[in-house]
UniProtKB/TrEMBL annotation, chain A:
PANTHER family: INNER MEMBRANE ABC TRANSPORTER PERMEASE PROTEIN YDCU-RELATED, INNER MEMBRANE ABC TRANSPORTER PERMEASE PROTEIN YDCU-RELATED-RELATED. This is ABC transporter permease subunit. Keywords: Cell membrane, Membrane, Transmembrane, Transmembrane helix, Transport. It is a multi-pass membrane protein. GO terms for cellular component: plasma membrane. It comes from the Bacteria.
UniProtKB/TrEMBL annotation, chain B:
This is Extracellular solute-binding protein. The keyword Signal applies. It comes from the Bacteria. It holds the Pfam family SBP_bac_8. Keywords: Signal. Residues 1-22 form the signal peptide.
Amino acid sequence: MRKEVKMGIFGLCLVIPSFLLLSVIVVIPIILSFIESLRNETGGYDLSRYMYLFTDEGMRANIVFTLQVTIVSCVIVLAVSYALAVYMRFSSGRLVDLIRKTYMIPIFIPGVIATYGLINLLGNHGWLSRWLLLFGGTLPRIIFDQKGIIIANLWFNIPFTTMLLSSALAGIPNAVIESAKDIGAGRLRIFFRIILPLSYKTFLVAVTFVFMGVIGSFTAPFLVGPNAPQMLGVSMEQVFSVFQEREQAAAISFFTFLLCSLLGYFYIRSMVKEETARP
Amino acid sequence: MFRMKKGFTVLSALALSFGILAGCGTANNNSSGSAANTSSDSTAASNSASSSTPVEIQFYFTGSQNVKNLWDQLTPMFEEKNPDVKVNLVYIPSGTGAQPTYDRILAAKQAGKGSGDIDLYEDALSFVTQGQKDDLWDTLSTSSVPNLAKVDSKTMEDVANLAVPYRSSAVVLAYNSEKVTAPPTTLDEVFEWIRQHPERFAYNDPSTGGSGSSFVTTTLYKDLPEDAIHSDDPAIEKDWAKGFATLKELGPYLYGKGIYPKKNQGTLDLLTSGEVDMIPAWSDMVLEQLDKGQLPATTKMQQITPGFNGGPTYLMVPKLSEKKEAVYKFLDFVLSPEAQAVMVKTMHGFPGIELTSMPQDIQDSFKGVSEGFRNFNVGDLSKEINKRWQSDVAAQ
């Protein structure tokens, strides 16, 4: 008993520093900005800032736009990354080597520079449109448009997601797959019964990362996006520093936080399920 | 993700303010001591006319690299003539440092620590008016700074003699002279040109840069009384309706059928790549980029009448500075035609003093550009303009 108490106190001591740090830099600011977002224009407290989020036409358009960009980006990023990771795991040859060596390059290029690169490449007078012009084609509007933001998101997110998924796939033992082959399982069957379930958890982590990264992104949407509707990050910056309405900006950021925590909830729930399912 | 960022912001703000407070405390203790020493030294020096340690003034300024280059060039010129004053330049790159400098002056005042060891401060109009409310700036007069007499008295009235408008810049139309032979000369002609040349004109999102903001403001105040541009009375907001209607109607004729690039540079890039033929732009940016060959040599400028609004950059003296005499000397030098000529040549800005006080060749170089240049001072209303523009024009 005494030993257990001792161990308990020791455990608490280990947890307290990180818990304090977490509360100072995460929990308290969240609570503070939530309180701030409840202040109305006359100094009282109500939900008027949130009402504005959902009643103002421009703001509603911003929310829908942000969700669209986020969901489309997530789907494409995960599809491409998963395909790449599976291909690199189960194939070999020069091409695979080349991909393996190069796919991480975008991680090392600063966001602003990459964004300007994209503008130069995809803009109305960019390289791509000049090449297309040689063949008599014209480029649809990509820069200053939703498409531009999505393409930038792909550039920023695919490398890291691929890395994450590759490591998960690398953890699947060859022996499992070979034994499945031995008893006559087809490629698709192996994929859906073995590979997918074994990498599912990492897949969920990847979704969470991409979702949160995209929904809170700023640089690319600011430089490449349209004037209206805007991504929530851009709108937040505008409300905060141009219109100088701190409370409204707090409401937008708290709403973004809620969206992210919704995803976090599903993620944690699935993790807890796994834990309890273990004997 | 954003929670985290906000968390960091709050934390770093806390850390920063502690740091500044702590810094102020020690710095001030030192400086008040040394200030007393140096000022007595300098009086002694002027009495005996012998060499002694000069008064050192702390000059905080913010801006792009070109602003830093300017002061690096001007300060040695001043110090050579005035060996009893040494100017210590503290450069704060634009974007991050400006607000904390102001906060530092304010915090020092509130803590009873003088001027926070800042003797001269350079920034935009909004900080002049903010400091007017907080009672931070020293009132300047021609008796302490004789060259102030060369500055347009209306500009000085606008800032209640609290700041020195030492240089300005105007927004003009920049255009590709190969495509545009007869540039518009009034705002109505500009609108007409836009309608007749669809997608060949662009102005930037007014909340991201002064040239777009100027285009919007000038449009809103087009048919309003002349003195409306010096008023921050919210009653005027209802009179903007016509201007916003015009901007909204122009939308589909603009670049990309209503795309407003970000920042002053955004539209300049479009002009460079030939995607548009005419934009509103800051004259100094156009001149500098022409100089460096970043803009095509065919780019020309045209001011309209009545002019787009431009604006001076101001120098402010904190009221509680202990070295005002030395600062006045420096300000007087900055407003001298000699220093102003350097400013015009290196920054391509408009002189802060009236053109008639400048050498003839500089007067000639401003022909056609400086005429009709107007100063807008609408205070907090500019925030409302940006807000209305976002909902009425961008999100149409």
